[in-house]
Amino acid sequence: MATQRPSFPVRLTPTASAATRGRMPAAPVKPVVPSTPSMASDAVRARMVQKLAAQGISDARVLRAMGAVERHRFVDSALVNQAYEDTSLPIGLGQTISKPNVVARMIELLMGAPALAGKPDAKLGRVLEIGTGCGYQAAVLNHVATEVYSIERLRGLHERARANLRHFRLATVHLMLGDGMIGYAKGAPYAGIIAAAGGEAVPEAWIEQLAVGGRIVAPTHSAKGGQALVVIDKTPRGLERLILEAVHFVPLKSGIA
Ligand code: SAH
Predict the structure, then answer these.
(1) Looking at ligand 1, which residue's alpha carbon is closest to its atom 10?
(2) 127: CA distance to ligand 1 center in Å?
(3) Is the CB of 89 within 6 Å of ligand 1?
(4) Does the keyword Transferase apply (predicted)?
(5) Residue 120 three-state SS
Protein backbone atom coordinates (compact mmCIF):
# COMPACT_ATOMS: atom_id res chain seq x y z
CA MET A 1 0.00 0.00 0.00
CA ALA A 2 1.38 3.38 -0.95
CA THR A 3 -0.71 5.38 1.54
CA GLN A 4 1.51 7.61 3.62
CA ARG A 5 0.76 7.82 7.29
CA PRO A 6 1.60 11.11 8.97
CA SER A 7 4.68 10.98 11.15
CA PHE A 8 4.46 12.37 14.67
CA PRO A 9 4.59 14.97 15.97
CA VAL A 10 2.36 16.21 13.15
CA ARG A 11 3.40 19.66 11.92
CA LEU A 12 0.54 22.04 12.42
CA THR A 13 -0.02 25.19 10.45
CA PRO A 14 1.20 28.30 12.36
CA THR A 15 -2.37 29.45 13.13
CA ALA A 16 -3.48 26.03 14.30
CA SER A 17 -0.44 25.48 16.47
CA ALA A 18 -0.76 28.92 18.07
CA ALA A 19 -4.43 28.28 18.78
CA THR A 20 -3.69 24.82 20.16
CA ARG A 21 -1.18 26.27 22.58
CA GLY A 22 -3.68 28.91 23.63
CA ARG A 23 -1.73 31.77 22.06
CA MET A 24 -3.59 33.80 19.51
CA PRO A 25 -1.73 34.96 16.42
CA ALA A 26 -1.34 38.71 15.91
CA ALA A 27 -4.57 40.38 14.78
CA PRO A 28 -4.79 40.44 11.00
CA VAL A 29 -4.60 43.83 9.35
CA LYS A 30 -7.04 43.03 6.56
CA PRO A 31 -10.51 41.59 7.08
CA VAL A 32 -10.18 37.84 6.93
CA VAL A 33 -12.88 35.48 5.78
CA PRO A 34 -12.71 32.35 7.86
CA SER A 35 -13.82 29.25 6.00
CA THR A 36 -16.31 28.40 8.73
CA PRO A 37 -18.46 31.14 10.32
CA SER A 38 -20.65 32.57 7.60
CA MET A 39 -21.45 35.59 9.77
CA ALA A 40 -17.90 36.83 9.41
CA SER A 41 -18.07 36.56 5.65
CA ASP A 42 -21.47 38.31 5.74
CA ALA A 43 -19.83 41.30 7.41
CA VAL A 44 -16.94 41.45 4.95
CA ARG A 45 -19.37 41.13 2.06
CA ALA A 46 -21.56 43.89 3.46
CA ARG A 47 -18.49 46.15 3.45
CA MET A 48 -17.80 45.17 -0.15
CA VAL A 49 -21.38 46.18 -1.06
CA GLN A 50 -20.97 49.54 0.74
CA LYS A 51 -17.85 50.13 -1.30
CA LEU A 52 -19.64 49.23 -4.54
CA ALA A 53 -22.36 51.74 -3.69
CA ALA A 54 -19.72 54.39 -2.93
CA GLN A 55 -18.12 53.61 -6.31
CA GLY A 56 -21.40 54.42 -8.05
CA ILE A 57 -23.35 51.15 -8.30
CA SER A 58 -26.87 52.26 -7.50
CA ASP A 59 -29.25 49.51 -8.70
CA ALA A 60 -30.67 47.99 -5.50
CA ARG A 61 -31.23 44.62 -7.24
CA VAL A 62 -27.54 44.42 -8.13
CA LEU A 63 -26.32 45.49 -4.68
CA ARG A 64 -28.60 42.90 -3.07
CA ALA A 65 -27.32 40.18 -5.40
CA MET A 66 -23.68 41.12 -4.75
CA GLY A 67 -24.40 40.98 -1.02
CA ALA A 68 -26.08 37.60 -1.28
CA VAL A 69 -23.49 35.55 -3.18
CA GLU A 70 -20.60 34.17 -1.14
CA ARG A 71 -17.71 35.03 -3.43
CA HIS A 72 -15.21 33.22 -1.22
CA ARG A 73 -16.78 29.89 -2.18
CA PHE A 74 -15.66 30.39 -5.79
CA VAL A 75 -11.96 31.05 -5.30
CA ASP A 76 -9.05 28.83 -4.41
CA SER A 77 -8.66 28.30 -0.68
CA ALA A 78 -5.31 30.14 -0.81
CA LEU A 79 -7.11 33.25 -2.09
CA VAL A 80 -10.10 33.21 0.25
CA ASN A 81 -8.79 36.23 2.18
CA GLN A 82 -8.83 38.29 -1.01
CA ALA A 83 -12.29 37.20 -2.12
CA TYR A 84 -13.97 40.46 -1.17
CA GLU A 85 -11.24 42.85 -2.22
CA ASP A 86 -11.73 44.86 -5.35
CA THR A 87 -9.39 42.77 -7.39
CA SER A 88 -9.58 40.19 -10.14
CA LEU A 89 -8.40 36.73 -9.09
CA PRO A 90 -7.00 33.71 -10.94
CA ILE A 91 -9.46 30.80 -11.29
CA GLY A 92 -7.17 28.36 -13.08
CA LEU A 93 -6.34 27.58 -16.72
CA GLY A 94 -5.08 31.13 -17.19
CA GLN A 95 -8.53 32.68 -16.61
CA THR A 96 -9.66 35.24 -14.04
CA ILE A 97 -12.77 36.17 -12.11
CA SER A 98 -13.45 39.89 -12.62
CA LYS A 99 -13.28 42.46 -9.82
CA PRO A 100 -16.57 42.76 -7.87
CA ASN A 101 -16.82 46.30 -9.20
CA VAL A 102 -16.71 45.13 -12.82
CA VAL A 103 -19.20 42.31 -12.22
CA ALA A 104 -21.60 44.74 -10.55
CA ARG A 105 -21.14 47.40 -13.22
CA MET A 106 -21.84 44.95 -16.07
CA ILE A 107 -24.91 43.48 -14.38
CA GLU A 108 -26.18 46.98 -13.61
CA LEU A 109 -25.82 47.80 -17.30
CA LEU A 110 -27.66 44.59 -18.19
CA MET A 111 -30.54 45.63 -15.90
CA GLY A 112 -30.84 48.77 -18.00
CA ALA A 113 -32.30 46.67 -20.88
CA PRO A 114 -35.13 48.53 -22.65
CA ALA A 115 -37.69 45.92 -21.53
CA LEU A 116 -36.99 46.79 -17.86
CA ALA A 117 -37.14 50.58 -18.28
CA GLY A 118 -39.22 52.11 -15.48
CA LYS A 119 -39.37 48.79 -13.58
CA PRO A 120 -36.84 49.16 -10.77
CA ASP A 121 -38.05 46.04 -8.95
CA ALA A 122 -38.43 43.69 -11.91
CA LYS A 123 -36.18 40.77 -12.73
CA LEU A 124 -34.69 40.14 -16.14
CA GLY A 125 -36.06 37.15 -18.04
CA ARG A 126 -33.70 34.54 -19.45
CA VAL A 127 -30.03 35.56 -19.54
CA LEU A 128 -27.10 34.05 -21.45
CA GLU A 129 -23.62 34.37 -19.95
CA ILE A 130 -20.60 33.72 -22.16
CA GLY A 131 -17.68 32.47 -20.07
CA THR A 132 -18.86 30.67 -16.92
CA GLY A 133 -15.37 30.59 -15.43
CA CYS A 134 -15.74 29.64 -11.77
CA GLY A 135 -19.51 30.25 -11.83
CA TYR A 136 -19.49 33.32 -9.57
CA GLN A 137 -21.16 35.73 -11.98
CA ALA A 138 -23.74 33.09 -12.94
CA ALA A 139 -24.69 32.88 -9.25
CA VAL A 140 -25.04 36.68 -9.05
CA LEU A 141 -27.07 36.73 -12.27
CA ASN A 142 -29.38 34.12 -10.77
CA HIS A 143 -30.58 36.74 -8.28
CA VAL A 144 -31.55 39.27 -10.94
CA ALA A 145 -32.86 37.02 -13.73
CA THR A 146 -35.52 34.34 -13.90
CA GLU A 147 -33.19 31.91 -15.64
CA VAL A 148 -29.46 31.81 -16.43
CA TYR A 149 -27.79 29.88 -19.25
CA SER A 150 -24.02 30.02 -18.90
CA ILE A 151 -21.60 28.59 -21.43
CA GLU A 152 -17.89 27.84 -20.98
CA ARG A 153 -15.39 26.55 -23.57
CA LEU A 154 -12.86 25.05 -21.13
CA ARG A 155 -13.96 21.71 -19.75
CA GLY A 156 -11.87 22.12 -16.58
CA LEU A 157 -13.61 25.36 -15.66
CA HIS A 158 -17.05 24.13 -16.69
CA GLU A 159 -16.58 21.26 -14.24
CA ARG A 160 -15.20 23.53 -11.55
CA ALA A 161 -18.22 25.83 -11.87
CA ARG A 162 -20.51 22.83 -11.62
CA ALA A 163 -18.78 21.78 -8.40
CA ASN A 164 -18.82 25.34 -7.00
CA LEU A 165 -22.51 25.84 -7.76
CA ARG A 166 -23.59 22.46 -6.42
CA HIS A 167 -23.48 23.95 -2.92
CA PHE A 168 -26.12 26.52 -3.85
CA ARG A 169 -28.51 24.10 -5.59
CA LEU A 170 -29.65 26.64 -8.15
CA ALA A 171 -32.38 25.07 -10.26
CA THR A 172 -32.52 28.08 -12.58
CA VAL A 173 -28.83 28.12 -13.57
CA HIS A 174 -27.92 25.92 -16.54
CA LEU A 175 -24.22 25.31 -17.26
CA MET A 176 -23.16 24.27 -20.74
CA LEU A 177 -19.81 23.24 -22.19
CA GLY A 178 -19.55 24.80 -25.63
CA ASP A 179 -18.38 27.64 -27.80
CA GLY A 180 -20.21 30.75 -26.69
CA MET A 181 -19.23 32.55 -29.89
CA ILE A 182 -22.25 30.87 -31.46
CA GLY A 183 -24.42 31.65 -28.44
CA TYR A 184 -26.85 28.99 -27.28
CA ALA A 185 -29.81 28.85 -29.62
CA LYS A 186 -31.85 26.43 -27.49
CA GLY A 187 -32.38 29.04 -24.78
CA ALA A 188 -33.11 31.95 -27.15
CA PRO A 189 -34.51 34.55 -27.20
CA TYR A 190 -32.66 36.11 -24.27
CA ALA A 191 -33.62 39.19 -22.30
CA GLY A 192 -29.92 39.78 -21.73
CA ILE A 193 -26.55 38.48 -22.94
CA ILE A 194 -23.40 39.18 -20.93
CA ALA A 195 -19.88 38.23 -21.96
CA ALA A 196 -16.94 37.76 -19.59
CA ALA A 197 -14.41 37.50 -22.44
CA GLY A 198 -13.61 40.05 -25.12
CA GLY A 199 -13.48 39.47 -28.88
CA GLU A 200 -12.99 41.55 -32.02
CA ALA A 201 -16.68 42.31 -32.28
CA VAL A 202 -19.99 41.12 -30.88
CA PRO A 203 -20.84 37.88 -32.75
CA GLU A 204 -23.88 38.03 -35.02
CA ALA A 205 -25.34 34.95 -33.26
CA TRP A 206 -25.73 36.90 -30.01
CA ILE A 207 -27.65 39.64 -31.76
CA GLU A 208 -29.91 37.05 -33.43
CA GLN A 209 -30.55 35.30 -30.11
CA LEU A 210 -31.41 38.52 -28.26
CA ALA A 211 -35.10 39.31 -27.68
CA VAL A 212 -36.55 42.62 -28.76
CA GLY A 213 -36.25 44.78 -25.64
CA GLY A 214 -33.11 42.89 -24.65
CA ARG A 215 -29.55 44.08 -24.10
CA ILE A 216 -26.04 42.73 -24.72
CA VAL A 217 -23.17 43.84 -22.48
CA ALA A 218 -19.76 42.72 -23.72
CA PRO A 219 -16.12 43.74 -23.78
CA THR A 220 -14.89 44.15 -27.36
CA HIS A 221 -11.74 45.40 -29.02
CA SER A 222 -11.77 49.16 -29.24
CA ALA A 223 -10.48 51.38 -32.00
CA LYS A 224 -7.62 52.48 -29.71
CA GLY A 225 -6.24 48.95 -29.52
CA GLY A 226 -7.50 47.98 -26.04
CA GLN A 227 -10.94 46.78 -25.00
CA ALA A 228 -14.08 48.73 -24.19
CA LEU A 229 -17.47 47.76 -22.83
CA VAL A 230 -20.13 47.73 -25.52
CA VAL A 231 -23.86 47.86 -24.89
CA ILE A 232 -26.24 46.81 -27.68
CA ASP A 233 -30.00 47.21 -27.29
CA LYS A 234 -32.46 45.52 -29.62
CA THR A 235 -35.42 47.82 -29.99
CA PRO A 236 -38.44 47.66 -32.31
CA ARG A 237 -36.66 50.37 -34.34
CA GLY A 238 -33.43 48.39 -34.65
CA LEU A 239 -30.10 48.10 -32.81
CA GLU A 240 -28.73 50.84 -30.59
CA ARG A 241 -25.04 50.63 -29.76
CA LEU A 242 -23.13 52.41 -27.03
CA ILE A 243 -19.39 52.21 -26.37
CA LEU A 244 -18.40 52.80 -22.75
CA GLU A 245 -15.28 52.67 -20.60
CA ALA A 246 -12.05 50.76 -21.22
CA VAL A 247 -11.85 47.29 -19.63
CA HIS A 248 -9.44 44.33 -19.47
CA PHE A 249 -10.96 40.92 -20.05
CA VAL A 250 -9.48 37.59 -21.10
CA PRO A 251 -9.85 36.91 -24.84
CA LEU A 252 -12.96 35.38 -26.37
CA LYS A 253 -11.75 32.25 -28.17
CA SER A 254 -13.55 29.86 -30.45
CA GLY A 255 -13.94 26.11 -30.04
CA ILE A 256 -13.88 24.02 -26.88
CA ALA A 257 -10.78 22.75 -25.11
N1 SAH B 1 -17.85 35.03 -15.32
C2 SAH B 1 -16.68 34.30 -14.90
C3 SAH B 1 -15.43 34.95 -15.42
C4 SAH B 1 -14.75 34.02 -16.33
S5 SAH B 1 -13.37 34.63 -17.23
C6 SAH B 1 -16.65 34.11 -13.39
O7 SAH B 1 -17.51 34.63 -12.68
O8 SAH B 1 -15.77 33.39 -12.95
C9 SAH B 1 -13.95 34.39 -18.86
C10 SAH B 1 -14.21 32.99 -19.29
O11 SAH B 1 -14.63 33.02 -20.64
C12 SAH B 1 -13.01 32.05 -19.24
O13 SAH B 1 -13.29 30.98 -18.40
C14 SAH B 1 -12.87 31.59 -20.70
O15 SAH B 1 -12.47 30.25 -20.84
C16 SAH B 1 -14.27 31.81 -21.23
N17 SAH B 1 -14.40 31.91 -22.68
C18 SAH B 1 -13.60 32.54 -23.59
N19 SAH B 1 -14.09 32.39 -24.84
C20 SAH B 1 -15.23 31.64 -24.73
C21 SAH B 1 -16.19 31.14 -25.66
N22 SAH B 1 -16.09 31.34 -26.98
N23 SAH B 1 -17.23 30.43 -25.18
C24 SAH B 1 -17.37 30.19 -23.86
N25 SAH B 1 -16.49 30.63 -22.94
C26 SAH B 1 -15.43 31.35 -23.36
Answers:
(1) 131
(2) 15
(3) no
(4) yes
(5) coil
Cα separation, 177 vs 255, whole angstroms? 10
DSSP three-state, residue 109: helix
Q: Which amino acid is at 218?
A: A
Query: With a 6 A CB cut-off, is 153 part of the ligand 1 pocket?
Result: yes
Comparing CA positions, the residue from 140, 147, 144, 154 lying closest to residue 250 is 154
Q: How far is the CA of 153 from the centre of ligand 1 (A)?
A: 7
> Is 147 near ligand 1, meaning CB less than 6 Å away?
no
Instruction: Render each residue's pLDDT in the chain as its tens digit; 257 residues.
Output: 344 443 333 333 333 333 344 444 454 455 455 554 567 889 999 999 999 999 999 999 999 999 999 999 999 999 999 999 999 999 999 999 999 999 999 999 999 999 999 999 999 999 999 999 999 999 999 999 999 999 999 999 999 999 999 989 999 999 999 999 999 999 999 999 999 999 999 999 999 999 999 999 999 999 889 999 999 999 999 999 999 999 999 999 999 99
196 CA closest ligand 1 atom index: 9
How far away, in angstroms, is 189 Cα from ligand 1 center?
21
**Catalytic positions, written as ranges:** 98
Structural domain boundaries of the chain?
Answer: 90-251
Cα(190) to ligand 1 centroid in Å equals 18
- 194 and 107 Cβ atoms separated by less than 8 Å: yes
d(CA 74, CA 104): 16
Nearest residue to 207 via CA among 178, 243, 235: 235
Architecture of domain 90-251: 3-Layer(aba) Sandwich (3.40)
Nearest to 206 by CA among 189, 220, 222: 189
CA angle 194, 78, 103 (to 5 degrees): 15
